[in-house]
Amino acid sequence: MTVTAPPALEILGVEKTFVLHAQGGARLPVLSGVTLAVHGGDCVVLADPSGAGKSTLLRAAYGNYKPQAGRILVRHGDNVVDIVSAPARHVLEARRRTLGYVSQFLRVIPRIPVLDVVAEPLRAMGLPKGIARDRARLVLTRLHIPERLWGLSPVTFSGGEQQRVNVARVFVADYPILLLDEPTASLDAESRALVVELIREARAAGAAILATVHDTAVRAEISTRTVMLEDLAA
Amino acid sequence: MTDESPLLSVRGLTKRYGAHLGCLDVGFDLWSGEVLGVVGESGSGKTTVLNCLAGSVEPSGGTALYQQRDGRRVDVLRMAEAARRRMLRADWGIVHQNPRDGLRMSVSAGANVGEPLMALGQRHYGRIRGAALRWLETVEIPVDRVDDLPSTFSGGMQQRLQIARNLVAQPRLVLMDEPTGGLDVSVQARLLDLLRSLVADLGLAAIVVTHDLGVVRLLAHRLLVMRRGEIVEAGLTDQVLDDPHHEYTQLLVASVIHP
């Protein structure tokens, strides 16, 4: 008899419509009845074209966008948190320990050096500064961010460097669930290969991954399953 | 998961100035280790809320249950004046927008930081001075300025000194009114970094009132949006800023050049 573990991330009937009050209450429906389960060891890649709502779904799973209906169940330690309805501080706690999110933007306090930007998620988990920085050094080295940049704030970095810092501050921790929004965008071939390697390692270690990737070669290398949003309506 | 009771529970907080409304039916919970941002334009009532909690304005109604160190809960809006002063001194810090309102300008920087400890009964001069020097270092004020008057400091240094004066007695709750207002952008970033690491390291709770959405994005875990005295939207800071639902929040976010 086989026992199937419950999914790490379960999206059930999520509806998201943006209502723009400044434009006469215009309604932009983006997600409708999206249902999807991601298990540990899975890497599900959303393969729709631009504008289909892939980023919106990832943001909703991170609690950054608030759907009108549906549930997004995240297995967090021994609990299950519904990101859609949980109080803000429970969502924050799930983010701190369980949800890693690579966005397409890097938002940091301007003067903080890269090393601390990358170490910060571990500090938030309660790791001592020394250990957090050691692990940050490792992941920065793996992503070929030269040591001479570690003491600088990433706000002045190139797009590709910022993107790698974004990736580094997620992969520095072993989050059981990863939400990756174009993690290899604006990267050259060499950096892309480094990021692919990190994603494959996390997958092999049992992380549940939901990603958007336009690059078909990267998609083939990381995905265990490719889906289209329009096929996910329950 | 942190399911202990909140440090502060505000319900129905209302302040009327005659026919004019300061704030109406404001309610929120605040937990230790959490920064709550309160945003809104001038006149939205955000500072009135802070002033009611700090005791500088008498509210017309509502409760604010505060959990003391011994676990007992008191309504800070209805405390006897002497008890309130004692509690404010021992447990709360208040960082004013203008550092001159929170500092004593006629005594040295070191005395400004040492005084709160003396007010709490510490008498050992060496220890008080030691604590003052440590805090000056923490807020990145050169320790050789310890005997200088705050009036000789720049605005950014004065603000950092005010923060040191407020945190030296290890408060559990800090109220901040536009803490980065009137500072250069470069100094703001430094102050934000400092505030954020202090909140994380000391596990204190803070309420930050500001009109600056960039400041709350980087500092606050949760956000309240106020308009005309009432809360119109509340939630995770990045969710409220990136996916604002209320008409007024959408306008507020859309009006910022770099949200």
Description of the molecule:
- Chain A is 34% helix and 25% strand.
- In chain A, the strands form two sheets. Chain A has a five-stranded parallel β-sheet, with helices on both faces.
- Chain A is globular.
- The mean pLDDT of chain A is 94.
- Chain A has seven helices and nine strands.
- In chain B, helix 4 packs across helix 5.
- Chain B has a six-stranded mixed β-sheet, sandwiched between helices.
- Helix content of chain B is 39%, strand content 24%.
- With 259 residues, chain B is of the alpha/beta class.
How would you state the average pLDDT of chain A, rounded?
94
Number of helices of chain B: 10
Please give the alpha-carbon distance between the first and last residues of chain B.
31 Å
Largest sheet of chain A: 5 strands, parallel
Q: Give helix % range of chain B.
A: 25-40%
Oligomer: heterodimer
List the strand order in the largest sheet of chain B.
6-7-8-3-9-10
Count every beta strand of chain A, where a strand is a DSSP E run of 2 or more residues.
Answer: 9
CA-based gyration radius of chain A = 18 Å
For the sheet with most strands of chain B, the description reads: 6 strands, mixed
Low-pLDDT segments, ≥5 res of chain B: none
- Overall mean confidence score, pLDDT of chain B: 91
State the order of secondary-structure elements of chain A, H for helix, E for strand. EEEHEEHEHHHEHEHE
Structural class of chain B: alpha/beta
Cα-atom radius of gyration of chain B: 18 Å
Strand content of chain A: 15-25%
Question: What gross morphology of chain B would you assign?
Answer: globular
Q: Structural class of the helix and strand makeup of chain A?
A: alpha/beta
Termini separation of chain A = 28 Å
Q: How are helices and strands ordered from N to C of chain B?
A: EEEHEEHEHHHHEHEHEEHH
